[in-house]
Amino acid sequence: MYLARTLTKNGEWNFFIRQSYQDEQGIWRSRELFDLGVEPSKYIHYLGKSGYYFDEVILEELSKKGVKCSQDDLEDIFWLFLDPDIKRIIEDFGSRSRRKKNHKRLTRAERKKLFKKLHPFDKRRICFLRLGQINMDDLIEQPLACYRVLLFKSRDEIEQMINQMEGRLRPWERRGYLYAIFNIPSYFGYKMTRFVPDAQPLKDIDRFFLDSICQLNRDPEFFLGIDDWRKDILHPYLQTYLFMYFDWAFRSAGANPKYGITKPKGKTIKKYLKMMGLSLEEYEDMSAEELSRYFKQQALKKHPDHGGSHEEFIRLQNAYEVLLKRKTWA
């Protein structure tokens, strides 16, 4: 079992208990066991300062679906929502660290065979998140112990796990992270500086990033076990990276003069408004946050997988940067 979350239309996180399982063809899939809503902590009941138990309704629902779970299993699911003092007591006694892991024992040959089947995109993400490496030419083919967390999981469980790990990335690490996981160094051949993002032309990185994310969106191996996958629509798993790339690209450039972007001069913005599909009045009435949300909506419509072109998409992103800087630096 694992904790999953999705963003509601109101901008709140809705949490679920889900489970990965293998179907008859041996494909790992995910099923929903219990909807925790937007406030999972309501299912935790406290007894004094150090005791607690989980609502019986959860155990009843899991039992109906043929799932047996222990207190430790539910503790792992609800760990984020437990009272900090309770968590401190649990950690002080070391009960979590002493738990037996239900890892299946694998022979060296089995481990090598399973690791070979892991998707390269997953391995690159784990490699950066665990080791902080951009140069993965040698590491990606090695049976590293850190890749074990990818085994015996559905695509949804992998994405939920990695999403939590990405939340710990510091802002200045995101550029290198995206550059590495989408294998952008490979586009620069044997160029000595191919592992240094700041040494490459931004327009080339933009183009290569869009090429990579479109290729991944059309890869059936990556979406194995996902029933709602469509090649013509950018999947929500990948939309996150689209927004991370363009949102972060502006912030880093605005905060650091070495990226060559300075405060916009008082020149006309008509062409940029036209690229964004906005009138001057609409733009002036928007806050920076509203402009950002509008850009994300337009970005999905202009995405190459939705009938747009790379050039059109990059022009949209450039217009967004200029208009956002003009608004935030006004």
Descriptive notes:
This protein is mostly helical and 330 residues long. It has three domains: 92 residues, no CATH class; 106 residues, no CATH class; 66 residues, Helix Hairpins (Orthogonal Bundle). Helix content is 46%, strand content 10%. The protein is built from 13 helices and five strands. The strands form two sheets. A three-stranded antiparallel beta sheet has the order 1-2-3. A two-stranded antiparallel sheet has the order 4-5. Strand 2 and strand 3 form a beta hairpin. The chain is globular and about 65 Å long.
**Computed CA radius of gyration, to the nearest angstrom:** 23 Å
Counting helices, strands and paired strands, the structural category is mainly alpha
Principal-axes geometry comes out as globular
Domain module tally? 3
| Uncertain stretches | 250-266
- Number of beta-strand segments: 5
Number of helices: 13
List the strand order in the largest sheet. 1-2-3
Head-to-tail CA distance between termini:
49 Å
Helicity level: 40-55%
Mean residue pLDDT: 84
Helix-strand pattern: EEEEEHHHHHHHHHHHHH
Q: Roughly what fraction of the amino acids lie in strands?
A: 5-15%
Largest sheet: 3 strands, antiparallel
